[in-house]
Design goal:
Layout lengths: L2 H20 L6 H9 L5 E2 H8 L3 H13 L3 E6 L2 E9 L1 H22 L7 H20 L2
Antiparallel strand pairs: 1-3, 2-3
Helix pairs in contact: 1-5, 3-4
Length: about 140
């Protein structure tokens, strides 16, 4: 299997697992990824759109749903009135904790299927791969 095909299959399988393991949250996968990407001290909309890899218009639609559900709020940036900042509400913080717990449990479940003697090596390889992907994304 070519590397690109392997990446595609990996992405499909991970998305499927994330959806299956977080369906009780009644959120879409993009909403879950968005909630997981908002830091506790807030973030501006443009940086957030870059972080999750969507256009500003798509991000606005996703944020509007989360505002409606009282998970986030959006305010003008006091340092730059042209930009908007997104913050997580108290219920949004609780949702972030729930998402993190679900993802951590999924990670543990998968990790325990790796033979004990390979676990450290797999973790190191995934960490290196993540670093490479992050650097690649920054250079795009």
């Amino acid at each position: 299997m070519e590397f690109g095909e392997l990446l595609k299959q990996f992405l499909i399988d991970l998305q499927s697992l994330f959806r299956t393991n977080t369906k009780s949250l009644n959120l879409t996968l993009p909403q879950i990824m968005l909630m997981s990407s908002i830091p506790t001290d807030g973030i501006d909309m443009t940086s957030l759109s870059h972080r999750i890899g969507v256009e500003n218009s798509t991000l606005t639609r996703l944020i509007d749903v989360l505002i409606k559900n009282k998970f986030v709020l959006k305010n003008k940036n006091p340092l730059d009135g042209r930009s908007m900042l997104v913050f997580v509400t108290k219920s949004g913080e609780q949702l972030q904790k729930t998402i993190e717990a679900e993802v951590d449990q999924l990670g543990l479940d998968i990790f325990h299927h790796i033979p004990m003697e390979d676990q450290d090596e797999v973790k190191e390889i995934l960490s290196t791969f993540h670093w490479i992907v992050t650097k690649y994304k920054m250079n795009k």
